[in-house]
Design goal:
This protein has helices spanning about 45-55, 70-75, 90-95, 150-160, 180-185, 200-210, 220-230, 265-280, 280-285, 310-315; strands spanning about 5-10, 30-35, 60-65, 85, 110-125, 140-145, 170-175, 190-195, 215, 235-240, 250-260. The two termini are about 35 Å apart. The model is unreliable at about 1-25 (pLDDT under 50). Helices cover about 30% and strands about 25% of the residues.
């Protein structure tokens, strides 16, 4: 079920009007757009809110709704929104019927609009807990995220790569967004919490100001096992200095965040959305460090999902594919 966010904003898909005259044969402007985002405090929510705020006066009624990786792909497949943030590894499981979608019919009809950025898995533990690796989390109190969130599935897969029976071998004390997990660690209710974001993450920085933290590394051997579970996983690094007390690079797992839609969305609407984003890139690059390097060249490179024909039309017109 979708959770309605606290904001209704105008504008995600109308920036093109402010960026110059429309070309001959321009597509019809959509009347409204609903965007499935993430949890407050996370990278998805910050970026989606920033994009909407940037374009608030451009004429499109745009509503942001809270969500998560697993919920978003199901809800966009059910045509409950026009656009949605999504994780590639979750999308892979959804269309293959694996992972959190094992035993369910493969999800159909979900299509890509554009790549946004690479997210990086963080498992944050307090130094005082003595935990230095995933295998040492067995029996420990941990703050996780909602069951349908992509961060939760990445965490479960990583635990499995270390021989644990997912979260069943842990004591999950709470489920919620990054702020919930951060508070649980600060209050000593949990030894660690998880999130998948582009570093630096505000929630991690907040905890690091309160007590010494450690970020758990993913070894090469564990990553090889992860890749067999889901080939969409990518190697990633949390750089030294990203957080107080983290003085060495931390190898971990990454995954592409994409903007996706469904096959029932018109070609005009899909065209309009990607054109709007592409032509507003100088502004969008300033919204959050995660999207500072987003470029027109990278936008069409959506893994797993087929590009929506309307999006593909725009990319071909501008020579991006």
């Amino acid at each position: 079920m979708l959770k309605t966010a606290v904001m209704t904003i105008s504008g995600l898909a109308a920036a093109a009007l402010a960026l110059g005259a429309a070309p001959a044969g321009a597509q019809t402007k959509p009347s409204q757009i609903t965007v499935l985002s993430g949890s407050p405090g996370g990278t998805w929510y910050q970026i989606s809110a920033g994009m909407a705020k940037l374009m608030t006066d451009k004429g499109i009624n745009t509503r942001l709704e809270q969500g998560g990786g697993g919920a978003n792909v199901m809800n966009i497949a059910a045509a409950r929104a026009e656009a949605s943030f999504g994780l590639t590894m979750v999308n892979y499981d959804a269309v293959q019927g694996t992972g959190m979608f094992k035993g369910k019919p493969p999800v159909k009809g979900v299509m890509g609009l554009n790549v946004l950025f690479i997210q990086v898995a963080h498992t944050v533990v307090s130094v005082e807990s003595g935990v230095t690796g995933y295998d040492q989390l067995k029996g420990k109190r941990v703050a996780s995220q909602p069951v349908s969130n992509g961060s939760t599935q990445i965490f479960r897969d990583t635990l499995a790569a270390y021989g644990l029976n997912g979260e069943d071998d842990l004591v999950i004390v709470t489920r919620g967004g990054p702020e919930v997990g951060a508070n649980a660690v600060k209050d000593r209710q949990a030894v660690g919490f998880i999130l998948t974001v582009a570093p630096p993450a505000a929630a991690v920085m907040e905890v690091a100001q309160s007590l010494p933290i450690r970020l758990l590394p993913v070894t090469d051997a564990a990553f090889a096992r992860l890749s067999k579970m889901n080939p969409s996983y990518a190697r990633a690094v949390i750089p030294a200095g990203a957080y107080k007390g983290v003085d060495k690079d931390v190898p971990t797992v990454g995954d592409k965040t994409v903007l996706m839609t469904h096959q029932g969305v018109s070609a005009d609407t899909a065209y309009w959305i990607v054109r709007t984003i592409a032509e507003a890139l100088p502004e969008i690059n300033k919204i959050h460090p995660a999207v500072k390097d987003l470029s027109l060249k990278e936008m069409p490179k959506v893994p797993v999902l087929p590009l929506h024909p309307g999006a593909a039309k725009y990319y071909k017109e501008v020579g991006a594919m």
